[in-house]
Backbone:
């Protein structure tokens, strides 16, 4: 769902990369800064996808019963 939303994906990638570039330019550790940015983005994506999966499962429990 997060990757499907183009606006959220673009904004978050641009924001995280901008922060990584600022950190990398101050201490000249580009690899570490971009690696940390990638790990942060992956972690956020993983948490959001898991939480939406749990929410979808809870919602689908009520949808299975049909109209009664």
Residues:
């Amino acid at each position: 769902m997060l990757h499907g939303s183009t606006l959220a994906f673009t904004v978050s990638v641009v924001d995280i990369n901008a922060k990584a570039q600022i950190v990398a330019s101050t201490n000249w550790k580009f690899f570490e800064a971009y690696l940390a940015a990638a790990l942060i983005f992956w972690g956020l994506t993983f948490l959001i996808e898991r939480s939406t999966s749990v929410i979808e499962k809870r919602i689908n429990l009520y949808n299975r019963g049909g109209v009664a």
Observations:
- Residues 6-63 form one domain.
- Helices lie at 6-27, 30-63.
- The longest helix spans residues 30-63.
